[in-house]
Amino acid sequence: MHTHIWQVNPHQPDISILSRAGDILKKGGLVAFPTETVYGLGANGLDARAVNSIYQAKGRPADNPLILHIADQSAVEKLARNIPKQAYLLMEKFWPGPLTIILARTPAVPDIVTGGLNTVALRMPQSTIALELIKLAGVPIAAPSANLSGRPSPTTAQDVLADLNGKIDVIIDGGNCEIGLESTVIDCLGEKPVILRPGGITWEMLSAVLGPVLIDPALAGDSSLKPRAPGMKYRHYAPQAPMLLIEAIQPRSYELLNTEINKALAAGKKIGLLISNSAAKSIEVNSGQILLQCYGSRLQPEQLATDLYSLLRWFDSRNVDIILAEGVEEQGLGLAVMNRMRKAAGYNILH
Ligand code: TXA
Ligand code: MG
After folding, report:
1. Number of the ligand 1 atom closest to the C-alpha atom of 105
2. Which of 36, 51, 54, 67 to mutate to test the pocket of ligand 1 (most atoms within 8 A of CB)?
3. Which residue's C-alpha comes closest to atom 30 of ligand 1?
4. CA atoms within 13 A on the CB side of 281
5. Of all helices (H) and strands (E), which one includes residue 223?
6. Can you give the residue ranges of every domain in the chain?
7. Fold type of domain 243-350
8. pTM exceeds cut of 0.85
9. Which residues have a Cβ under 8 Å from the Cβ of 191 and sit 6 or more positions away?
10. For the domain with range 4-179, which CATH number is right: 2.60.15.10, 1.20.120.1200, 3.90.870.10, 3.40.50.10330?
11. Could you read off the pLDDT of 213-264 as tens digits, one per residue?
12. What's the CA gap between 147 and 152, in Å, rounded?
């Protein structure tokens, strides 16, 4: 299969291009498209065969359910039932946007979308391209991140191409994704809402609207616990090189980084170093064997969130032997950043 790349202006998308893409989706094809979080790999969410081809293209385990993307809130009642008041509050406040809500599903949702669960994940993305495409397709769009299963999520059309060239019909190239990390997933089915995956809508933002919000304890990395979002159990977001995450506070983190840098250099390793600006000022980085990337402040990881996956892919493209990364403060968007960094490191962490 030849994979076409169609460039579209993210602010003023060419509707004739999107409507061709919508037709391909309607007919059961696969179209990758940008959202404000990451690129999604879309298929007609009501067509079990089309959805099956998503799993094929990505090499995704069949028990990992997909998010249905909608462009209009009236679609919610067709796909979900017994919708709690809290869920409506969230839709009103955060849709369109990087929030996925888990609800009880109706029979309209094919089993293959939910991996056999009796719940369904719904999201209304904010990106104009995504919203227009969903409207033009006229159906809910099932879309996981448009990467090969296990690889970092794609934040550019080139990342999608690197993973899925020849496996999908079209990639809509709408430039870089703003947020850079996947949406927050929240489950409102129980008495207290639970964050199953942290993302762009933060715990602080959710708590301000809902009151107490829990965080799935499995996210802390305790492998004896079973995550409630099936996708969170897989060791993904991972670069090819092994990654070591340093979670100590400063200045202890500088000492640990120094020690690990020296160890790796002594072993003749090429190092990808991903650290805060203050760490870069405090430790010695003067070897040609070190590829340095500074991400700014540990307290404001917005830029790191946007760049994290592309930096991991960049280190891979430069064939580093090890990635040493300094963690950020776990507040606001930092919770999502740390979740992805820990997973990328396969929980290889120094405290
Ligand atoms: O930002 C995003 O959410 C991107 C863009 C494309 O919208 N999509 C995305 O999809 O990240 P994916 O498939 O890579 O991640 C979906 C996550 C997985 O962890 C999956 O297990 C969880 O949502 N999920 C889906 N349906 C679920 C359900 N019924 N119950 C619990 N978790 C669910
Ligand atoms: Mg994914």
Report:
1. 29
2. 67
3. 229
4. 8
5. none
6. 4-179, 243-350
7. Rossmann fold (3.40.50)
8. yes
9. none
10. 3.90.870.10
11. 999 988 876 666 777 777 776 656 788 999 999 999 999 999 999 999 999 9
12. 7
